[in-house]
Specification:
The strands form 2 sheets. Strands 3-2-1-4-9-6-10-11 form an 8-stranded mixed beta sheet, with helices on both faces. The protein has a 4-stranded mixed beta sheet with strand order 5-12-7-8. The protein has 11 helices and 12 strands. The protein has 266 residues and is of the alpha/beta class. β1, α2 (24-36) and β2 (44-52) form a beta-alpha-beta unit. The protein has a single domain (2-261), classed as Spore Coat Polysaccharide Biosynthesis Protein SpsA, Chain A, CATH 3.90.550. The protein is globular and about 50 Å long.
Length: 266
Amino acid sequence: MQENSVMNKQSITIIIPSRDQPLQQLFLERAVASIRAQTVIENFEVTLLVGVDAGKIPEGDLAQRLSLTFVESKGCSQAAALNAAIRLVRTDYVAFLEDDDQWFPLYLEVSMRALSMGAFVSSTQVEYDENGELLRIFDFPTPSGWIMTKSALQSVGEFNEEFRFHMDNEWLGRLCEAKIARLHLVEETAPNAIKFAHQVRPWLANVIGNSGGFTRLARHESPYPLVRRLVHSKSGMAQIETNPVFQEISRDEYARLVKRFGRVPW
């Protein structure tokens, strides 16, 4: 009976991009704990790959203690770290979780139900600051809420390493070009149509309107989003807000996206 149970398990690779910084170990511990706490985690054979910059594999017993495999990229960017891990994927499903974010326990269960209606799932998140204060609901689909079939990943391909900040937008643009059906998870009280989202949640309207017509909203039973996003001073978006050089890079990347796709993909 136990052997049959193992044979019937689905396989999933969860890729965690992680940067070398003082809170790296704490972030990874929290992220992995949130994965282990998923309500349906026992139904899966889980592979945890942590993509890191060249020469930045952490020392010590972190990999063994958390059952992680660190994958060293050949570059120094989030896209390069993700791609290094993507090249090792051999499982049925693939998901991403940035090391400073977490999944609430129902995320995997709800996402897998959604994948029965499309090959790619994204999610709205709820943002907290470094003191644990709830800030807002964040509707942009960051990679921490992405889960997909292996075939969807193969159809779209790796992340474009020419993009420093908006490689997720660029990847979503190619997802649209591949005409892959997508479900975007929202909390139970969120608008369920673009006409209502335009009135009260314009970023949620962007998810529908800027995704090429292949995205539908999927409500779940939780009053909150199922992905917890940490807002902190070291994040890429925070650095864009305070650094004029990064602001220029961000504007240039947006211009390239509009030239390539006719819009900034969401």
